[in-house]
């Protein structure tokens, strides 16, 4: 039973308010531009407290800007003269001898930032004199699994290794010597290229879902 004099316990300093999965912040260097002046847009994507596997084109290319909405002073949506597009072709990546359909991925680490720039908004929108507002949305897909594409030499050695393992004509001792040799070669090549930045790929079938992100609204004036 709670009496009238009871008060709720104060929040402790260790309690955290809910954080969004990621946040978008849209900006531009200034608010007023001449009619034919370039209007650069700058986007900061702040990740939350989880490591995410997301498509590369959504957070690391101009594909992040594909869902810009520009409205005029009357609140009417301005139609673009050309769409902002970015290709995201699938690629088949070999893993454990199987060819898996993937897209180019990106490991978005917790609490990290991605900064992107669209060079000129006026390349895509015909903006006459007046005041406009712009917002940006991203439908960010999230994936469960990632694959690191192996070095071509490693792939070739792994194919030879598989062929030797299934060869019925090789004697046991000779087969084991060959397997040891190929395994050592694979290990050597991986060690030699371990410092090389490798592309991440996301199996299409591992898609978990998507989240909708919406940026702040900025105001632009064309003089």
How would you describe what is shown here?
By secondary structure, this protein is an alpha+beta fold. The chain folds into two domains: about 20-150 and about 200-220, Immunoglobulin-like (Sandwich); about 150-195, Methane Monooxygenase Hydroxylase, Chain G, domain 1. Helix content is about 20%, strand content about 35%. The protein has three helices and 13 strands; from the N terminus they run E-E-E-E-H-E-E-E-E-E-E-H-H-E-E-E. The strands form three sheets. Strands 2, 5, 9, 12 and 13 form a five-stranded mixed beta sheet that branches. Strands 4, 6, 7, 10 and 11 form a five-stranded antiparallel beta sheet that branches. The longest helix has 21 residues, at about 170-190. It is elongated and about 85 Å long. Residues about 1-15 have low confidence and may be disordered.
Radius of gyration: 26 Å
Domain module count: 2
Mean pLDDT: 83
Number of helices: 3
Mind summarizing the main beta sheet? 5 strands, mixed
In short:
The chain is 18% helix and 35% strand. The chain is α+β, with helices and mostly antiparallel strands and 223 residues long. The protein is elongated, with a radius of gyration of 26 Å.
